[in-house]
Amino acid sequence: MRFKKVILLTFILFIAVVPINLCLGTTNVSNHEIVVTISINNAYYYAADDDGIENDVAAEFSLDVYRNKFHNKRCSVSFYLLVALYLPSGYGYGYLFLVTCTGDVYAEPVARFFNHATESGIYCVEMTCILPCGPNCAYIGTESYCFDPPGGSDGTDPLTCTIEL
User: Fold this and answer.
1) What is the domain partition of the chain in residue ranges?
2) Where does the pLDDT of residue 22 fall: very low under 50, low under 70, confident under 90, or very high at 90 and above?
3) Which of 1, 49, 76, 111 is the most exposed place for a label (fewest CB within 10 A)?
4) The domain 21-164: what is its CATH number?
5) Which percentage of the chain shows pLDDT scores above 90?
């Protein structure tokens, strides 16, 4: 009986500590001068291109770049945004973007993955911000969102990922 309680308490503790990314969330990355906030607002599949097949994935997210009052707002800041889509089979597609901006920025871009929804099951969109802080270091933050598009597609090859502002 005592062994069962220990196992149950261990399981409850594990569930409480390990984050389950099946809901919307936000991640912040900061180097004490610049704060980059990424929030995945929605992800879904639809027919975005001319083939008429609902095998394209869209991820709506918000991107907020804020500089503290001591940072020169006229200087540009650059960071990397890794946008990834993981299929139910575990296979993933990742696209790396270099984002450069001047001043504080708020945008609500949409990442579109054309011809990527090729199988049934749960898909996960993941956004990773990489903010360099020197020649050998970087601040990193990741946010993910999982969803289940019904069906799948005819198995055509994925084309590309675009981010539209």
Assistant:
1) 21-164
2) very low
3) 1
4) 2.60.40
5) 26
Say what the pTM is.
Answer: 0.70
Question: In 10 A of CB 164, how many CB atoms?
Answer: 8
- CA-based nearest residue to 143, from 111, 101, 102, 115: 111
Neighbours of 122 (CB within 10 A): 12
Using the CB atoms, write b or e for 18-36: b if 16+ within 10 Å: eeeeeeeeebebebeebbb
C-alpha 129: how far from its chain's center?
9
Question: Looking at 7-21, 79-93, 117-131, which range is the least confident one?
Answer: 7-21
- Pairing between β-strand 92-102 and β-strand 110-113 as defined by DSSP bridges: unpaired
Of residues 29 and 11, more confidently modeled:
29
User: What does the pLDDT read at residue 73?
Assistant: 65
**What gap in Å lies between CA 118 and CA 10, rounded to an integer?**
38
Strands 34-46 and 26-30: antiparallel
Element (H, E) at 15: helix 2-17
